[in-house]
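Much of what follows relies on a compact textual record of a protein's fold. With that in mind, consider the following protein and its fold in token form.
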Amino acid sequence: MGAYILRRLLLMIPTLFGIMAISFVVVQFAPGGPVEQVIAKLTNQGGSAADRLGGGGGGDLGGTNFDPAGNVSSKYRGAQGLDPEFIAKLEKQFGFDKPPLERFGLMLWNYARFDFGDSYFRDISVVDLILEKMPVSISIGLWITLLSYLISIPLGIRKAVKDGSSFDTWTSAIVIIGYAIPGFLFGILLMILFAGGSFWDWFPLRGLTSDNWDQLSWPQRILDYFWHLALPLTAMVLSAFATSTLLTKNSFLEEIRKQYVVTARAKGLSQRQVLYGHVFRNAMLIVIAGFPGAFISAFFSGSLLIENIFSLDGLGLLGFKSVVDRDYPVVFANLYIMSLIGLFVSLISDLTYTWIDPRIDFERRDV
């Protein structure tokens, strides 16, 4: 197993390199980069944007003069009429005064040391910014994963036992409908119904805690926390448990039809003893081993629209805003961290298989 783990760890290096290289190339051809973003703000809002960028990016842009008479030729759209020295300072501030290959190599070297630099448009380091948003995403990812498994495993087992019955039919219909309804659409419906829309005003619409959080006792804080999470979690869990429910059902059905189950029943064991004493461990192998991946999926990618709807300032919303603003340090840091964690989680999932079923040996297989 040690050799397999070592091979997987070594394979992470070219995988990460490929992900970052492709993303970097795509960004080079994306219109509206950070320099153009600043130029657009300047032409629309005067000098305030220059003051803002001077504080956030580390460059000295204060006191830059415009050239009202010149028509400066520039590779940046909307740069005519701006002082060429100002454009050069912007390029230096954002690192665009260097060739692309040099910038890419410098980025890889810094990222290998987990040095992600500072945000272009926020006066904060990228690491501090990600850590600031992480509690929201952890809360959403953790609770969605736990709730979906707590619902799907008992429901999937029950559906396998009652396969073909009316219970199996109508629960399958509910699961399929829940999976088909987009989470963000259901979230909007919940907001209209229960968050001060056209009907009841029972739940809050913003953040994970109330404004008076510091004055609340610990029991009140716990209730306040779940009060804020109630609608977002309901919107996301509706579709999150569908796949794991059907996976659990099919896994149990496959095991129930095997010979060792027939033998166990012939020995006089009860249905409960057969299910939880013999079938459960084998049937739950693929479901439990997929837990790390399910958590990471909910943690990183499942909450973007929900965060927007319910004003939850997490990693999903941060990544989206960073792409729109062309805040490349935040974009690439998010991509790098998510890719790295995803690769480690994939390895952990494989190791979970061997922990649950020692008969599995990945060293006898090709990577």
Residues 45-73 have pLDDT under 50 and may be disordered. The chain has 16 helices and no strands.
